[in-house]
Amino acid sequence: MASSNPLEAGEKLEQWAEGLQRKAQRYNQLHERLNSTSVTETSKGGEVTITVDANGVPTALNLGERTRGMDPPAVAAQVLATMRRAQAKLRDQVTGLVHETVGDDAPGNNLIGQYAERFPDQQEAGADEGPTEMAIGELEDEQREPRHPEQQQPEQSQQEPQRPAQRPRSDDDDDWGGQSILRRGEF
Question: Is the entire prediction scored with pTM above 0.70?
Fold first, then answer.
């Protein structure tokens, strides 16, 4: 409840404003410290070194001599695994900075939660240092076509290609009638 004494209410308001100002200074300090934060991580075998900034974005990548002659998917897997470890270290570093600078409050815990969500531990994410089985655009079902035409069975090559299923139209769809706007000869 508000005090009926105007002087007492004024003092409480001043204390509240000073508290907000101190909190704003701590968050400004946290912002400055985060902006200058980066993490460098090296792969277990020393083949890859990567640096990420405070947002987890790679800012430097060094491929060592050991990567020469390595299988490109293995190098890519090492780069990704090393980057994930750097991002996980960044998450831990940000958690420490938040606790040191602003303490245990809701906005600080929210920031920590965002980093934890974006950069989980490798075990949580299921990451490893080996190449993955699938690539972008591949389907993991028995009906996909073989990668090499010579592997096709005769009955498959005579079949009509299947068209992808069309999604149902909604009121938000464009007015192109399901046709491409890139029609031959209309430009």
Answer: no
